């Protein structure tokens, strides 16, 4: 299926009358086939796990509220090419579009963990000059402990060494873990934007906005 990609025009801020504008965040899901990329996406969109998803590559839109603010998520559920041993499937187009990335492997499929390792490496190489968008690595299918071939420690270490976030979840069992992944990624995107906009001052402003809000609640 052909995916139409609009240029990345995500922005945030206030409208002329001072009201908060909707914030947009483009999120790209990558990872080998069969790891649960569609399951994660559908869980986030509908709170449901439906079991079988078919091979459809799509960009979905989902509106959410975080800390009282309207967020418009555009979620690109990508397909990993069959019989492809390389990571050439990640194009500049993917990376330019994405404000943040979720790299998914299955805890019971070691080769899918290797794919994520290669993809992280490739993304870091490609974005060396323009700055890397935040990445969260997700070990999915946590419910299948008896078939585990990738330890939590290995996942955590990979994330640590590549400066990525890390979660182990089961899209099949819980909605909450999936929600945490998307919300944490959104926080990282906001930090990255603040840093781009105003250097360290931007981050301080963004942190104090969070604490200010927390105190008010
Ligand atoms: N046990 C278990 N099965 C899962 C979980 N998440 C997904 N699955 C199953 O894994 C299979 C693949 O899930 P998909 O979401 O289609 O995986 P995908 O990564 O989108 O696969 P491609 O479309 O081939 O890229 C399906 O049979 C799902 O039901 C999970 O957390 N636990």
What is the fold's blueprint, element by element?
Elements: E1 23-31, H1 37-46, E2 58-66, E3 69-77, H2 92-97, E4 100-106, H3 110-126, E5 135-140, H4 152-161, E6 165-168, H5 176-216
Parallel strand pairs: 1-3, 1-4, 4-5, 5-6
Antiparallel strand pairs: 2-3
Bound molecules: guanosine-5'-triphosphate (GTP).
Q: What is the helical fraction, as a range of percent? A: 25-40%
Structural class: alpha/beta
Residue ranges: pLDDT <50 for 5 or more in a row?
A: 1-7, 213-217
Heteromolecules bound: guanosine-5'-triphosphate
Q: List the secondary-structure elements in sequence, H or E.
A: EHEEHEHEHEH
Oligomer: single chain
Characterize the biggest β-sheet.
6 strands, mixed
Globally, the shape reads globular
How are strands sequenced across the largest beta sheet? 2-3-1-4-5-6
Distance between the termini: 45 Å
Mean pLDDT: 83
Number of strands: 6
Number of helices: 5
- Output the radius of gyration: 17 Å
Fraction of residues in β-strands: 15-25%
Protein name: small monomeric GTPase
Family: Belongs to the small GTPase superfamily. Ras family.
Organism: Anguilla anguilla
GO molecular function, one term: GTP binding
């Amino acid at each position: 299926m052909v995916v139409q990609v609009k240029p990345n025009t995500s922005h945030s801020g206030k409208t002329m009358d001072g009201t908060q504008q909707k914030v947009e965040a483009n999120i790209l899901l990558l990872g080998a086939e069969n790891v649960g990329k569609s399951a994660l996406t559908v869980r986030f969109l509908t709170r449901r796990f439906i079991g079988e998803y078919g091979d459809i590559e799509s960009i979905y839109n989902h509106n959410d509220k975080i800390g009282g603010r309207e967020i418009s998520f555009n979620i690109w559920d990508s397909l990993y090419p069959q019989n492809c041993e390389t990571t050439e499937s990640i194009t500049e187009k993917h990376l330019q579009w994405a404000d943040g990335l979720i790299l998914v492997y299955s805890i019971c499929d070691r080769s899918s963990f290797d794919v994520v390792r290669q993809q992280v490496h490739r993304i870091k190489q490609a974005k060396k000059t323009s700055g890397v968008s935040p990445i969260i690595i997700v070990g999915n299918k946590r419910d299948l402990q008896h078939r585990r071939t990738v330890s939590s420690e290995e996942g955590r270490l990979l994330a640590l060494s590549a400066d990525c976030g890390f979660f182990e979840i089961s899209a099949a069992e819980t909605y909450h873990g999936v929600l945490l992944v998307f919300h944490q990624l959104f926080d990282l995107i906001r930090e990255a934007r603040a840093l781009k906009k105003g250097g360290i001052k931007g981050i301080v402003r963004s942190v104090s906005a969070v604490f200010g809000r927390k105190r008010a609640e």
